[in-house]
Amino acid sequence: MIRRLARLWLLYAWLDFTWMTRDLKFFLTFFASDLILNVATVTGTLLLAERFGGIGQWTRDQIIFMLGYSILSRGIVDTFFGFNVAFISRRVGRGQLDHALIQPQPVWLGLLTDGFNPFGGSASLIPAVGLLCWAGSHLMPVITPAWLGLFSANVVASCAVIMSFSFLWGSLAFWAPRAAEEINSSTMRMIEQLKTFPLDGLSPGLLGGMLTIIPAGFVAWYPCRALLGLDQTSFAVGITPLAAVILSTISALVFRKGMQHYGRTGSQRYLSMGHRS
Q1: Contact, 117 vs 79, CB < 8 A?
Q2: Cβ contact 167:228 at 8 Å
Q3: Is residue 47 within a helix (H) or strand (E), and if so which, with residue range?
Q4: Rounded Cα distance, 116 and 9, in Å
Q5: What number of CA atoms fall less than 13 Å from residue 235's CA on the CB side?
Q6: Which of 111, 124, 143, 217 could form a cystine bridge with 75, CB 3.0-4.6 A?
Q7: What is the SS3 string spanning 214-261?
Q8: Rounded to 10 degrees, what is the CA torsion of 239, 117, 127, 41?
Q9: 3-state SS string for 51-111
Q10: What number of H helices and E strands is found in the chain?
């Protein structure tokens, strides 16, 4: 199965490469605009941290590290789950999930591989790596294999939180394909707008909401808080992976329930000739 996964990733990477490089002007325009857009999402918080030397108990360098982490987590999602896999409500609501159902492979394998676009979705990885390296050189954390392992585990967990939140709400499209087709546009926008701020000053109620109802706190704030030592509890670095497991389990159960409903009703967006209604 691992060999099959690697072969499919290689196949889709080649397709993405040929699509991106078919025209030099298109490639430069696409990559530059995506790069500018990703940098712009963190500029406001970055300027505030620079102007005041930090935000709350976070120093300027710690804020920069958090912003790099937030771009990295979203960049990995964009790289591995493009072509509306991360926006699963579009595939379900438009009837495009049928394309995965007729393929001679498990649905989960299709969703895990056919969104892989390392050339079209990786523009955000450049500023993410730059911010993390710049902040790391000033923070001088103790870079050990154990710390790198915890960092990697938390990044993967943050990506899983983003995808779980997307699939959880996107599953509504199984029951309401027209109304919920673009619901993931709103859920991703909420995550994108809230992930770049330190949440320490929020009230317990609002903070709890940011870690449950809208789990934006697990995309960057809480894992960075644990990795940088701002949370001194011994199990802090394990909270984000634990949250990812819980959210992934819930979203998988809801998505599976939606698939069962879809199996009984089928797509409501296509006529017998295949045209969208």
Answers
A1: yes
A2: no
A3: helix 24-52
A4: 6
A5: 4
A6: 124
A7: CHHHHCCHHHHHHHCCCCCCCCHHHHHHHHHHHHHHHHHHHHHHHHHH
A8: -70
A9: HHCEECCEEHHHHHHHHHHHHHHHHHHHHHCCCCCCCHHHHHHCCCHHHHHCCCCCHHHHH
A10: 13, 2
152 vs 158: CA distance, rounded Å: 10
CA distances from 101 to 10, 40, 55, 183, 201 (A): 21, 38, 48, 22, 46
Greatest CA separation for the chain: 62
**Residue 157 and residue 166: Cα distance in Å, rounded?**
14
Q: In this structure, are residues 194 and 216 in contact, taking their beta carbons and an 8 Å threshold?
A: yes
> Tokens 């397709």 appear where?
15
Q: What are the structure tokens assigned to 67, written together?
A: 């912003």
Length of the chain: 277
As averages over each run of 10 residues, the pLDDT of the chain (277 residues) reads: 91 92 86 84 87 91 94 94 94 89 90 92 87 87 85 97 97 93 95 91 92 95 94 90 97 96 80 51
- The DSSP symbol for 147 reads H
